[in-house]
Structure formats: C-alpha cells, structure tokens
Amino acid sequence: MKIVIENVGKTFVDSKKKEVIALENISFSISEEEFIVLVGPSGCGKSTLLNIVGGLLSPTTGSVYFEGEGLDSKEPNLGIVFQEIALFPWRTVYENVVYGLQERKLSKAEQREKGQHYIDMVGLSGFENAYPKQLSGGMKQRAGIARALAIEPDLLLMDEPFSALDAQTRTLMQEELLTIWNRTKLSTLYVTHNIQEAVYLADRVIVLSRHPGKIKDIIDIDLPKIGRNDEEYRMQFEQYADDIWQLIRHDAEEALKEA
Ligand SMILES: Nc1ncnc2c1ncn2[C@@H]1O[C@H](COP(=O)(O)OP(=O)(O)OP(=O)(O)O)[C@@H](O)[C@H]1O
Ligand SMILES: [Mg+2]
User: Fold this and answer.
1) What is the pLDDT of residues 106-136, one digit of tens each?
2) For residue 49, which ligand has an atom nearest its CA?
3) CB of residue 245 inside a 6 A radius of ligand 1
4) What is the sign of the dihedral through the CA atoms of 138, 144, 145 and 146?
5) What's the predicted TM-score (pTM) here?
6) Hey, which of 54, 108, 119, 151 has its CA 20 to 30 A from 63?
C-alpha cells in the first residue's frame, strides 16, 4: 500500500484572527515498507503534517490518500505514537496494548495472542500487569509503541516519540525501533528535530522549512538500514547529517529568535 500526500496546505487562524500558513504545497508519497523521517525546526509544521496524514486534522488544500489492493473493503489502519505518553493510567500495560484490539472486537484469544506478541517484541515481558505510573519513561514509550503495533497498522505515525527520554535511553530505543521495524517492515512516517536520529532511521529524510512549512529537500539515505552506526559508515553518516544541518540551520536560527 502506498500513501500519497498531494499538494497539502494548512492555514490556521490564530487567537488574534491572523492567518498562519503552517504548510504549503506538500507533496510526497510513502511506499510500502518505507521509513520516512520529517525533520525541520520548531514550528515548521511537522506535527501538523503528521496529524493530517493521520486523519486527525483536515488539510485546507490538497489531500491524503492510500493506493493499493484491498482498499475498497476496508479503511486503512493507522498506528500513532505521540511525543506525550498517551497511555490510559487506569489500565495495565496489557490492557493498554490490547485497547485497539478490543475496539475492533477481536476475540479474547486473539487479543491475548497479539497483545503478548507485541509486548514481547518491545521488551516488556513480565510487566503486563504493571500500571503506567509504575513504569519508567522508556518503558511507557515501549508500551505506547506496542499498542500502536498491535493493531498491525498499514502506516505507523510517530511524532517525536523519544524526545522526552534521556540521551542513553533514547539511543537504545532508536536501536530497538530499528530492530522492530526490521521484523514488521511497516511503512512509517516519523517526526523528529534530531538530525542524527533522522539519518539513523530513515530511508528518506524530508526536510521542511518554516513559515510557511514547505519541502526544502528530500534526501535518500543510501546506507544499510542495520549497522549504519558502524565505523565504516562514519564519514558518510556525518556527511548526511551535515548536509541536513546546512539546510535547516538558517531556519533553526530564525526559530530561536522568535522563541
Ligand atoms: N491549532 C492551531 N492554531 C493556530 N496555529 C497553530 C495551531 N497548530 C499549529 N499552529 C501553528 O502552525 C505552525 C506549525 O506548528 P506545528 O506544531 O505543526 O510545528 P512543529 O514543526 O511540530 O513544531 P515543534 O518542533 O515545536 O513540535 C506553528 O507556527 C504553530 O504555531
Ligand atoms: Mg511538533
């Protein structure tokens, strides 16, 4: 299945009735099994775009549609992981993970099978009965990821899922996400403002500029998906990171002045 984002624009009206063009003329597509990372400075419209692709927000212009087989018979499934940990505090890890399966009226046996499978995959075995408040930040995000994966989505959307974590946990979670991706091969749209993270995870990096948010460049990361951190790719990795930083730098400085 392919996801097509065509000429998407979004204009907000702020509290002073002033129009803010958050996105303009955004077109790209996400192929089957492709991992796309959106990067750009604060306020460039990354979350807005992710929410539009996820159907949580409607675009002012343009459209988002899915192409592929079997689409007539069902709505595409979307798995979403937000920056803010969005677990239900009154549900255990297991109950959070199977939430989407209950909504879809899967049998108890199927819920158990899929729920356990994805809990194991994110490394939370043994914590099925824990409540969110008993978990560390990294573990909560793992539970959030397991919940998004459990519905076996056609597209996984992630908005800065690791930005609230400390640097070490973040590095470990990035590695784990790659391992998970390698097993599930889900088409993914991932938002970050961390350039190293973008180069580490992406098949393609889409760089957005700000005011209005437009596509500045799309960069193919031509490195093996697993093992990019290895010494032999160090030079190429840093070159990609530097190229992206040069594209963002000016806008990031402007964003800082406004903050
Ligand atoms: N509901 C809204 N009403 C008015 N303006 C909005 C609204 N949501 C977003 N904006 C504006 O649209 C622009 C893009 O916001 P968005 O949150 O998508 O940026 P972002 O790239 O995700 O930023 P960050 O990196 O800080 O998360 C900003 O100028 C923001 O102020
Ligand atoms: Mg955002």
Assistant:
1) 999 999 999 999 999 889 999 999 999 999 9
2) 1
3) no
4) positive
5) 0.93
6) 151
